[in-house]
Amino acid sequence: MPAEIQPTASIAIEAAAEVALEDVGRGRLVMRRFFRKKIAVGGLVVLVLLLAFAFIGPYLTKWDYKSTDYNAFLQRPSSSHWFGTTQIGQDVYAQTLRGLQKSLVIGLLTAFVSTGLAAVVGATAGYFGGWADRILMWFVDLLLVLPAFLIIAILSPTFRGKTWLIFVFLLAAFSWMITARIVRGLALSLKEQEFVQAARFMGVPPRKIIFRHLLPNMSSLLIIDATLNVGGAILAETGLSYFGFGVQPPDVSLGTLIADGTRSAITFPWLFLFSGGALIITVLAVSVIGDGMRDALDPKSNSSRNT
Amino acid sequence: MTAPPPGEPVLRVSNLVVDFPSEAGTVNAVRGVSYEVAPGEVFGVVGESGSGKSVTALAILGLLPNSARVSGSVQYRGRELLGLGDADMSKIRGRSIAMVFQDPLSALTPVYTVGQQIVEAVRIHNDVSRDDAEKRAVELLDLVGIPNAAERARSFPHEFSGGMRQRVMIAMAIANDPDVIIADEPTTALDVTIQAQVLEVLERAQEATGAAIVMITHDLGVIAGFADRVMVMYAGKPVETGSVDDVFYRPRMPYTLGLLGSLPRADATGREPLTPVDGNPPSLVALPPGCPFAPRCPLKIEVCESAEPPLLPTDDPWHASACHRTAYVAENDLKPTDVFAAPTPPPVVSEAMREGRPVVLEVKDLVRTFPLTRGLVFRRQVGELAAVDGISFDIREGETLGLVGESGCGKTTTINEILALAKPTSGSINVLGQDTAALSRRERQELRRDISVVFQDPMASLDPKLPISDILSEGLATYGVAKSERGPRVRELLQLVGLSSTHASRYPHEFSGGQRQRVGIARALALQPKLVVLDEPVSALDVSIRAGIVNLLEQLRADLRLSYLFVAHDLSVVRHSADRVAVMYLGRIVEIGAVAPVFAHPAHPYTQALLSAVPLPDPRRERERKRIILEGDLPGTTEVRVGCRFRGRCPTFATLDETLRTKCIEDDPALTSLGDDQSAACHYPTLASVF
């Protein structure tokens, strides 16, 4: 019954199969499944719009985030100041956009770097075991016992005036360790699985095994971690900025704006609402995208089943 | 022909129906099961996974989750059990109806001693003092054959082997003299010699208590030797019931025929064809009208697709079958090969030419030791564990070597050593004439193309997150096959293993177990290897699916000139598929040779015991056979060994006198040829037939 199966499969069916088979492969399949999910695509659109808004928006107004309008202190939103003004006459619209720029980049980049680092280090340690594992885990433990806040505080004067991207990497460098430990644990159990053994015996190099088999099989964890990290990074930056490290005035971020705005949230809501709303929309969009990614990567999820 | 034993039945199940709500719809797990069990009778329930046999048992004991909807009736000595509250059921469970579960590891609590657990079982139903209960516990352990029962009662479950744990479970089950013992796959997780021990204990327990046993299993061999009457289940319904002789020798339902025909037999004399049952068992959600077996049945007629046949007596009032074609099958007395198409077995490579064929794999004095360490902070080596201790064999082109042995004998270590293509602890591995110890990194990578592996568990061996096309082309990509060539090769591979090429974009979970194993085989063949290591390729599959995979492997071997190293604990499959067989015990090969002589007249006492423990799907022969029951379990591999390592359990050794024994105690026997193609490592080999 096997082997000689379908000797008579018609040519038409074969041809159709050929077309369907042309571009299968995980990348395409996952993309197809992702785009089938409307809410996730919605999240992606919102995120792209936010980015566009943050970087193009400032050109639409004559106000700059640093400049002050001495004729308008604490004004409600109006035709000249779309989002209103602050106590010293700064334009809230310009400030919100500037803050959004900073926070989006800080949040997304930190989350990406931190989760990526955790995945690579954890999976490498778990997969290779032995000395690689021991050394990497010592390093992780070392970073865990260092007081992150203090170190960033001490280092930040050194970077003052230079690019704030350094700040992103500092934030990322101190937020990946716990995830790395979890990833290592998962890698330890996954590497015993027969499909990993099969790849090993087939001669697939370790680098490929880690990226093809280990990491996708823990994608739910990584995606959830990354999504949480976006919010976490934005908040961490706020905390640091509040104490005078990180983003410094006159420069602003969503964090500093919200920190300043909360005091008068009820009496002068426009100081707080726009920046707060931007933060909420950002985090929401990211989690919806993460949700969609997780479903797309998980073949068992029903919501994005093949037709 | 055989009526159930007289007397009021102890257990009467009538029209039992169990439904589970699920997201996909209602799962009709059991769709009307009726049977009666008389006192002292052994009633066998056979079926594949998903046939509803375990759910039926759980429903009888009221152990189903609350979401299950149960209707029908279950009567114990005339008392209705369905609808009883948990408190009332608890008085019946364990006391009147006891259960033995499949997995003895999870059925015992790890934090209490086995003695305490039996005491608890005794005292929960009887008002006895702790001391009396403890005495009873020791008695029970003694009854089920646990040596030094008084002392062992103070041991914890992890200090027992799997077989010993199952004995403890049986001791707990009979602690309160139940009338019915329900045994759900009690020996499935055990090795074959241990299975023989446990079945014997179960029989002894039945004699001691006079209980009826409901034996649930998928293994027709166990049923043939153990049960009086049998019920075959398919898709939640009994499809055939009768005495074992009726069902095994005069099957009337095509599904039963298919099951019997798909079983390889350890006592076969030649290579008899296996008849696979095409297709898969139906999903139990929204079954279409008609006979659920119809889509797989070669005998189906129009009415099969519109009306489900009821279970009706055949020409014999005690033999019932649920099939529209019963009369036709009975009239012509059809055999499995008449109903199901058996492929002609591909030609076997001839024995005589063995010397002339090139050697594909040669293993010489292979040793693999693992260091035993103690201490957490400062690790120090306290000894060595020799998992494989000097084994030699070779595989020539086009042949299959079966490597058999019980768990812990070193089979897995052996294949891991071979597949790693690294330098072993000592000894040598030669693949296609290349010594693996002398390989450079690049040569080793190149050699990996020629040797591949098929794993046991088809679910775990395929990456759940990769579509089939990616799984199959992974090896191709590793060896630099151009992207444009991979697609056609994937389609070719899928067709080679009997799958449709349109399956390439699906994920593993969308396939059934048998299909997944086919994908696993296709992956192993992707790089056109010369040698394929088959690690228990069919033991995780259902019986009716197994035959298809076994046939496929044989066909592929003939078509592609492959050689197989076939690792298995199922000796029947090895008898069917292998040309030569090597029997391992504690890291050594104790007997090796062509399958025909080794199975016909094994020489080593261990091989004899192993073969005699294999149940045959043949009730008459099972009744006549005398089993060689081995004492004890596999000893630990850490002890320093002098002399023959089997002597502690050896039935031959036990009969020898002092002077002859010294040789076994002092000398380690080497493999010596006994003519034909058969060698055994025993000082006093005797050729004996065990079937």
Characterization of this structure:
- The complex is a heterodimer of chains A (307) and B (691).
- Chain A has helices at 11-21, 26-36, 38-56, 92-128, 130-145, 148-159, 165-173, 177-190, 194-201, 206-214, 219-242, 254-262, 270-297.
- Chain A is mainly alpha-helical and 307 residues long.
- Chain B has four domains: 11-227, 3-Layer(aba) Sandwich (Rossmann fold), CATH 3.40.50.300; 246-266 and 273-339, no CATH class; 352-585, P-loop containing nucleotide triphosphate hydrolases (Rossmann fold); 592-691, no CATH class.
- Chain B contains 25 helices and 24 strands.
- In chain B, the strands form four sheets. An eight-stranded mixed beta sheet of chain B has the order 6-7-8-3-9-10-12-11, with helices on both faces.
- In chain B, helix 4 (114-125) crosses helix 5 and helix 4 runs parallel beside helix 7 (162-173).
- At the A-B interface, helix 1, helix 9 and helix 10 of A face strand 18, helix 16, helix 17, helix 18 and helix 19 of B.
